Amino acid sequence: MKKRGKEKQQINLLELIPVKNLDWEKQDDGIIVLLKPKFKHPFLKKHVLSRLKRPFYRVKLDDVGSFIWEQCDGKTPVKHVAQSLKEEFGEKIEPLHDRLALFLQHLERNHFIVFKGL
């Protein structure tokens, strides 16, 4: 049975290029902390956010997440990120593609990254 409307185009995650969409800090131990603003509305950002003592939610990544975050430079496709992960962490990261896909989906869902070309 045919579906009505447009058919969804298949997207290959390995060919996408992730781009950071958020401010972040790197700690002395190499761990990345993402800084998510508490407000998104332009009025609140201008008038309330600047007066808050802690205007950001701080999302601390682990060593694997920090490594992936640094690879999201807007030039490196996901398949090269996967190869780098395999070289850096070896068997510790298995199942590699499943974990990487899930992590990138979480980052995109929370608007921490965007994929170039989508």
Major pleated sheet: 3 strands, antiparallel
Which regions are unreliable across 5 or more consecutive residues at pLDDT < 50?
none
Total number of domains: 1
Spatial arrangement of strands, main beta sheet: 2-3-4
Shape: flat
* Elements, N to C (H/E): EEEHEHHHE
| Beta-strand content bin | 15-25%
Question: What this model shows, in words?
Answer:
- The protein has a single domain (13-116), classed as Outer Surface Protein A, domain 3 (Alpha-Beta Complex), CATH 3.90.930.
- It contains four helices and five strands; from the N terminus they run E-E-E-H-E-H-H-H-E.
- The chain has helices at residues 42-47, 63-71, 78-89, 96-109; strands at residues 17-20, 23-26, 32-37, 56-60, 113-116.
- Strand 2 (23-26) and strand 3 form a beta hairpin.
- The longest helix is centred in the last third of the chain and has 14 residues, at 96-109.
- The protein is flat, with a radius of gyration of 17 Å.
Please give a handful of descriptors for the protein shown.
alpha+beta, Outer Surface Protein A, domain 3, three-stranded antiparallel β-sheet, two-stranded antiparallel sheet
Summarize the structure.
By secondary structure, the chain is α+β, with helices and mostly antiparallel strands.
Write the SSE topology.
Layout: E1 17-20, E2 23-26, E3 32-37, H1 42-47, E4 56-60, H2 63-71, H3 78-89, H4 96-109, E5 113-116
Antiparallel strand pairs: 1-5, 2-3, 3-4
